[in-house]
Recover the amino acids of this structure.
């Protein structure tokens, strides 16, 4: 498969009190259309990735709503799969292009989270988990803490390993003007930050964020842009306790294998990746499950500096969910935007030299949904 | 295009206090897989149409959740576009098949509405409308009442015309064991029922319903089943007041033209149709906007008996949303199930003689999203 990312758009990520969800969606959308060689009139469908706006604000029907504001008469869809909503929206947009039904489509990932109370948002986010997890009083920090603890016990992963993910991603974020937290942190600061859910501290967790990301996808091969050459989705049980292992996300393996096969590349061909570091342990497991390192060695691998901007395999150059921010429905699209920018050599201070093949990994819940995309020049 | 509906499944529609959303989804899904020549292992992806379960119960992530319960390891998606969620799920499932990414997929439309209070459900349903409509205190009965009133003033449509939709659909529902209200009503009963929002009375409105519908779609041409030969989506403003006309749904016209063109048939070729009669006025406008009769004549057309089971153009043989029920996310899929059954001559007492080309029209909100499908033997 070969689908072109013809344009990208991204709002500032952060606590954007002065903007509505629609302001953000339209800003990213118009920027992506302007960046492409197309006009609004060329766009035949809009795929919106959004998880919880209906719950927080009462507004569903975002596909038609955003299409209508943009004056796109074609189709509008809202795709939801928890924090993988954005990646799923990209995947389904690609299907409509491969089908030949549409030629140029817009994908918008958007979330407006800071207008609601923290308890409302926490409760809404638990919609990504299972009923038994909600009844047990589990939250996502607690679920990932269970995975982190198991990983520590099984593989000797340490809190310093976890902290190294955060330190790296904050360094990357310090180079990204769109990042929610564009500043560096020290290992000491990460290790001494307040405990959220043992062993995870504040700096092991991604924040509550407002933001939008957009891309114009086309089945046309001409014009500037980069190609999506692999797009795969895999699922697993929503309930973490129903899995065979707490220390791997099987759906990441399945989706990655499929996407790499589609693209005809090996994991060793990847030069830059954006992965789903909702918690530091998630990035450690992603390294292992994607095959960048062996199972159990993700902590050491990241701690070694291999995934730093100037390392051999830069990961989360945007700052990741940790430092760039995590507007849940937007994240999967933001990953596509970041890798596209890297492959187009438009990443400024955080440009990865020789980036010509990139990967994104977007996770819903604790791994019930995983979407992997491969991008190439 | 030519995508086969290889199997269908449908639960009883109604107030199903003893069943959860998952019970309903799995019952319909397993029935549709059993009805097809495939097994669960052949299904590569699940497309779930659902509007408000996240809001009412806290559970999002239904794509993965339903895939996981069915032990489908492939992809899971939840598609939302208000009351058109089911139709949109069918449309996107078709795209994935046309793309060649998947060969056999499952579409499940499901909604569990009766476990929440009426005020919670009414509020959640207004997620299909606009913020200004919500702020104005408008509800869907009120919005459709505005359209009905405008239609009466402009075209002389009468309450008897409206009532004839309800009387017909209840007659059809009386022949459908799955219907929520499987009994006939008289014109007198409809006309004298309690006022909901003038001029619409209780029998002009569709009910709150639990239920699920499912179909197995395949890109294979072999085996039993019928073909979907047209699938189109159009959008309009979410806000009714932003439209040029209160008496037509422009997106119905646009989607129908596109779907008919894809299928290579004319509206006069259609032998049976399921349309979105969330309110009686909606079915009247659907007749006009789809082109079954001239604009303004929908009321007379239905009142004449033309759309009765034994009329020249039977519409809503399932009983429609009015009598069969309206579990919002399920409705668009149920329409596909009903037309498939008609084309396969499995509709028993409500079988339409010579049904070989059918149409479905699924509406989100007051017409911000419309999905039209054409099915053929």
């Amino acid at each position: 498969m070969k689908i072109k990312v013809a344009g990208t758009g991204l709002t500032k990520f952060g606590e954007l009190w002065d903007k509505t969800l629609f302001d953000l969606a339209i800003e990213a959308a118009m920027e992506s259309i302007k960046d492409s060689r197309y006009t609004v009139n060329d766009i035949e469908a809009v795929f919106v990735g959004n998880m919880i706006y209906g719950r927080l604000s009462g507004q569903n029907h975002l596909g038609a709503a955003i299409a209508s504001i943009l004056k796109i008469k074609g189709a509008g869809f809202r795709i939801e799969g928890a924090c993988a909503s954005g990646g799923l929206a990209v995947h389904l947009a690609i299907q409509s292009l491969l089908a030949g039904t549409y030629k140029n489509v817009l994908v918008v990932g958007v979330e407006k989270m800071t207008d609601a109370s923290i308890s409302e948002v926490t409760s809404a986010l638990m919609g990504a988990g299972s009923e038994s997890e909600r009844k047990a009083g589990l939250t996502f920090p607690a679920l990932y803490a269970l995975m982190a603890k198991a990983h520590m016990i099984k593989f000797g992963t340490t809190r310093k390993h976890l902290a190294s993910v955060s330190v790296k991603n904050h360094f990357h974020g310090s180079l990204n003007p769109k990042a929610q937290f564009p500043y560096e942190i020290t290992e000491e600061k990460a290790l001494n930050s307040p405990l959220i859910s043992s062993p995870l501290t504040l700096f092991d967790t991604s924040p509550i964020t407002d933001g939008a990301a957009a891309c114009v996808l086309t089945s046309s091969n001409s014009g500037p842009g980069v190609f999506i050459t692999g797009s795969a989705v895999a699922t697993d049980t929503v309930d973490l306790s129903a899995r065979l292992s707490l220390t791997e996300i099987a759906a990441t393996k399945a989706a990655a294998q499929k996407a790499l096969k589609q693209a005809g590349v090996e994991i060793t061909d990847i030069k830059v990746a954006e992965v789903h570091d909702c918690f530091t342990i998630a990035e450690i497991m992603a390294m292992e499950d994607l095959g960048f390192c062996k199972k159990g060695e993700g902590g050491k691998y990241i701690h070694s500096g291999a995934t730093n901007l100037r390392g051999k395999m830069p990961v989360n150059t945007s700052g990741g969910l940790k430092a760039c921010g995590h507007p849940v429905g937007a994240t999967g699209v933001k990953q596509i935007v970041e890798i596209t920018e890297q492959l187009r050599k438009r990443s400024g201070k955080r440009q990865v030299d020789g980036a010509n093949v990139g990967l994104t990994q977007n996770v819903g819940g604790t791994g019930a949904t995983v979407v992997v995309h491969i991008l190439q020049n």
Observations:
- Residues 140-155 of chain B form the longest helix (16 residues).
